[in-house]
Amino acid sequence: MNTERVSFQLYSARKFPPLDSQLAYLAKLGLRNVEPYGGLFAEPAALRDGLKKHKLAAPTAHVGIERLRADVDAVAKIAKDFDIKVIIVPAVPTEERTGDAAGWEKLGEELSAYQKKLKAKGIDFAWHNHAFEFAKLPDGSYPLDHIFAAAPGLLWQADIGWIEWAGESAAAWIAKHKDRVIALHVKDLAPKGTNAAEDGQADVGHGVLDWKKLMPAINAPGVRYLVLEHDNPSDYERFARQSFATIAAW
Length: 250
What we know:
Layout: E1 6-8, H1 19-29, H2 44-53, E2 60-62, H3 65-70, H4 72-82, E3 86-89, H5 101-119, E4 124-128, H6 143-149, E5 155-159, H7 160-165, H8 170-176, E6 181-186, E7 188-189, E8 201-202, H9 211-218, E9 225-228, H10 236-249
Parallel strand pairs: 1-9, 2-3, 3-4, 4-5, 5-6, 6-9
Antiparallel strand pairs: 7-8
Helix pairs in contact: 1-2, 1-10, 5-6, 8-9
């Protein structure tokens, strides 16, 4: 596989500072892209200097919804300063994860407003899923469908691991919303009930997911970025090294 569209979510390395060492290691592996998370923008100079020093790009970034609620224009400026093509909201607070369709539609309307404002500035805007969007509501519908129904222009960074963790088919969901999928979080799972120290996740290609089955979704025309992520690795270098080797061999 051409690895030019492969990226690495820096959240995976958050427990192993300093940032400069992380970027140096990822660049040495052959990665050309990384995906910053919101906390890194608290020290923009360090992030900017590190990316430049190690010749890394940040085509996508996670930005918390609180930052968008405070100042959408400030988020747009971050995107322009770092040449970020896609701003992605990773989640909403637990207390906002409502149990009814109307609540999810309201979130979709809010996201749609941000999407329109960012689009006007030439920036794409996407939602990133966890497992909670696939917890069926009392009427049998899914939160994710309600979010999307209320936000026609909203794009999607589909997290393969979290969809499968929820007991759903990532391939089926990505096919269902294929026109929205701009990026994937490439995440693997350990056998059920194992690897609790790493939150039940695994290095890509070293877990239980059927990547052959997922390949049509991974190679779909609209998918621009494949972002490696592990929420709690005990060794981020091992995770990056083994996962990048797996994806490079596809």
